[in-house]
Design a protein that fits this description.
This protein has two helices and five strands; from the N terminus they run ααβββββ. By secondary structure, it is α+β, with helices and mostly antiparallel strands. 30% of the residues lie in helices and 37% in strands. The chain starts with a helix and ends with a strand. The strands form two sheets. A three-stranded antiparallel beta sheet has the order 1-4-5, with no helix packed on it. A two-stranded antiparallel sheet has the order 2-3. The mean pLDDT is 82. Strand 4 and strand 5 form a beta hairpin.
């Protein structure tokens, strides 16, 4: 019985050792890179920009919209003046004054949808409203 346990332990140790050795040899074989220096230089060259026109515009704020400018779109709408003298346009409350009722307003609302290479549209100004 003792001989059986010893033999089983010995065989188990041999299996574990052989498996570990095979795994280590496979790891060593596969950890070398196969890319040549020329291949890596070509990848690096392709990643660089050939001229300044193709480089993306870098804006001062990460929220700014590159290659766009702030533009104002003119709109007209009829709005209800509340009891405090305000109307709501685009989720913003604007004080108009006067009494409750309705009013037709022509206004401009800013956005960053106009393409303009090399410029940045300040995102925090998008949605500003100017009453005309």
């Amino acid at each position: 019985m003792k001989m059986k346990t010893t033999l089983a332990s010995l065989i188990g140790a041999m299996v574990i050792g052989t498996t570990g050795y095979s795994g280590y040899q496979t790891y060593e074989k596969n950890k070398t890179t196969t890319e040549s220096d020329l291949f890596l230089e070509n990848i690096e060259a392709l990643a660089e920009y050939e001229d300044d026109e193709k480089k993306p515009t870098t804006c001062p704020s990460p929220y700014d919209v590159p290659d766009h400018r702030l533009a104002y779109v003119q709109k007209t709408g009829t709005y209800t003046i509340d009891a405090e003298g305000y109307i709501s346009i685009g989720g913003k409350r604007i004080h108009i004054g006067g009494v409750e009722g309705t009013i037709t307003v022509t206004y401009e609302i800013s956005d960053c949808s106009t393409s303009s290479p090399g410029t940045c549209c300040p995102y925090e100004k998008a949605g500003d409203i100017k009453i005309l």
